[in-house]
Specification:
The protein is of the alpha/beta class and about 450 residues long. It is built from 16 helices and 13 strands.
C-alpha cells in the first residue's frame, strides 16, 4: 500500500453544465432525477453500479466504486446548460422533443425538469450546417462570446450556491478541423488568434476555453477539436484544470473495442471490417452534412489501427480494409442501428465471417457516460490532477493523450487504467494479477 492522495471533500453542491440540451443531455438529467426519485436504476454507470478489487484475491476486499472514492452524491448535483432552440426552453420540453424516454416517465419528473432552463448558446451555423438555431447569443467576437459564457458560468454557480462545477460537451458535431494551424501550437499564438477572431476557432473551443478560465473541468463528448490541441493542453496545465475527451464511446465503436482485442488476443486475422449506421435523431441530421461526418469518421476509423497494430502484425492485419458509413434515417429517431460485417481468417488462412446488428438507443448508452465523466472529472480536480485525464479514455472513441503518446483504445486496457488510477488515489496497491498461485511457497 502507498500513501493516499489528499482529496478535497465532496462538500456542498456540484453543478453539471452541458452545452447542448438535446437528446443526450435530457436523457442524462431525467435519468438522474428518476434514480433520485426511486423510479429508475443507473444501469451503465461505473460510478453508481461498478465494483473493483482491492488487494489480493484471497483478501476478498471488493468494493463499490462509489463507496471507495469520495464522489458527489446524486442528490447534490445541479444541472444547467445552453441550447440553440427557443422552442424548448427547459429540460422537460427538450426531453419531450428528443423522444428518447417514455412520456409517462417524463411526466412523473415534469416538475423537476421544467425548473431546469437552458441558456442561449454560442453557435455558428457555418460549422453545423444542418441545424437552424432560433436562440443564440448576440455576440460579435470570440472574446465577447467567451465573456458571455464565463458570465453564465459564474451566475449559474452563484444562483445555485454551488461549491464546484464541471462541463461536459453534449452538443452537435462540428465540421472537421485538424489542429495543423500554427494558432493551435501554443497558448500565446492561440490567444492572439482569439483577439483577431480567427475563423479557425470553432464555438466548442470557446466553451472549453471559458470553462478552464473559470476553473471548471471540461470533458468533450463529441469528436470536435474542442480542447484537443497543444495550446489548450498548455492552458489546462497553467490553470491546473482537468480536461478529457473526445467523442462518447457508445454503440458501434463500443463493440469494436470489445471485439477487436479478442480477435487480436487469439491471433485471428481480419481482412475487412465494414460498418454502417442508421439513425434519425439530431445527431443523425447533423452528420448528414459531409463536413460534420468527416469529423465523426476520423474519430471512428482510428480505433482498429491502434488496437490491432497492423505494422506489428502484417500477416494478420496488414491488408485490413476498414469502412465506416453513417446514414440519416428520420423514422428511427434515437433508435440507432449499427451493422457490422467482419471478414476474419483463421488456421491456414481459412475465411470466416461475423455479422453484428446492434439496435441500440444512442442516448441511453451515452447518459451514464455523462454522469461518470462529471463525477470523475470533479474527483480529478479535487485530487489535484490537471491536464489530460487519460485514465478516462474508457469513455471515448478518440481518447485525448499527450502528443508524444498514442491513444489507448482497447476497452479492457482502458478499464484497468481507470481502476488502477482510483486505487492509486486511495493508496491501494495496483492490481497486476502477478500474485502467488496455489503451488507457490
Amino acid at each position: 500500500m502507498t500513501n493516499p492522495v489528499e482529496i478535497k471533500p465532496a462538500s456542498g453542491k456540484l453543478g453539471v453544465l452541458l452545452p447542448g440540451i438535446g437528446a443526450v443531455s435530457t436523457t442524462f438529467i431525467a435519468g438522474v432525477e428518476a434514480v433520485k426519485a426511486g423510479i429508475g436504476k443507473p444501469i451503465g454507470s461505473l460510478t453508481q453500479m461498478g465494483s473493483l478489487r482491492l488487494g489480493k484475491r484471497n483478501e476478498q476486499r471488493d468494493s463499490k466504486i462509489k463507496d471507495f472514492v469520495p464522489l458527489y452524491d446524486l442528490e447534490n448535483l445541479v444541472f444547467g446548460g445552453w441550447d440553440i432552440f427557443a422552442e424548448y426552453p427547459d429540460c422537460y420540453s427538450a426531453a419531450v422533443n428528443a423522444g428518447v424516454l417514455e412520456q409517462s416517465l417524463l411526466d412523473q419528473l415534469k416538475d423537476q425538469l421544467s425548473e431546469i432552463k437552458s441558456m442561449p448558446a454560442v453557435f455558428n451555423q457555418k460549422y453545423v450546417k444542418n441545424l437552424n438555431p432560433t436562440r443564440i447569443k448576440d455576440v460579435t467576437s470570440h472574446r465577447d462570446a467567451i465573456d458571455a459564457l464565463r458570465s453564465d458560468i459564474r451566475n449559474f454557480k452563484e444562483t445555485n450556491n454551488l461549491e464546484r462545477a464541471v462541463m461536459v460537451w453534449c452538443g452537435s458535431t462540428e465540421t472537421f478541423q485538424a489542429p495543423d494551424s500554427d494558432i493551435f501550437e501554443n497558448l500565446s499564438s492561440f490567444e492572439k488568434a482569439l483577439d483577431n477572431d480567427d475563423p479557425s476557432i470553432l464555438p466548442s473551443v470557446l466553451y472549453a476555453y471559458a470553462a478552464l478560465q473559470e476553473d471548471v473541468p471540461y470533458a468533450n463528448g463529441a469528436p470536435n477539436l474542442s480542447a484537443d490541441f497543444p495550446a489548450m493542453y498548455e492552458l489546462s496545465h497553467k490553470l491546473k484544470v482537468p480536461i478529457a475527451g473526445k467523442d462518447f464511446k457508445t454503440g458501434q465503436t463500443l463493440m469494436k473495442t470489445i471485439l477487436a482485442p479478442g480477435f487480436k488476443a487469439r491471433m485471428l486475422g481480419i481482412e475487412g471490417w465494414f460498418s454502417t449506421n442508421i439513425l434519425g435523431n439530431r445527431d443523425g441530421e447533423v452528420l448528414d452534412d459531409p463536413e460534420s461526418f468527416k469529423t465523426k469518421e476520423v474519430s471512428k476509423l482510428g480505433v482498429l489501427e491502434q488496437i490491432l497494430k497492423p505494422e506489428e502484425n502484417p500477416d494478420l492485419y496488414g491488408d485490413l480494409y476498414h469502412k465506416v458509413r453513417i446514414n440519416y434515417y428520420p423514422p428511427r429517431g434515437d433508435d440507432k442501428e449499427g451493422w457490422d460485417n467482419i471478414d476474419i481468417r483463421g488456421w491456414l488462412n481459412y475465411p470466416m465471417q461475423i455479422k453484428i446488428d446492434f439496435l441500440c438507443k444512442d442516448s441511453i448508452l451515452a447518459a451514464p457516460i455523462v454522469l461518470d465523466l462529471a463525477l470523475f472529472m470533479d474527483l480529478a480536480s479535487r485530487s489535484g490532477k490537471y491536464g489530460i485525464q487519460e485514465w478516462l479514455s474508457f469513455y471515448f472513441k478518440s481518447p485525448t493523450c499527450k502528443p508524444d503518446l498514442y491513444p489507448l483504445h482497447d476497452l479492457f486496457v482502458q478499464k484497468n487504467k481507470l481502476e488502477n488510477t482510483l486505487r492509486d488515489l486511495m493508496g491501494e496497491d495496483l492490481i497486476t494479477n502477478l500474485g502467488l498461485d496455489y503451488y507457490d511457497e
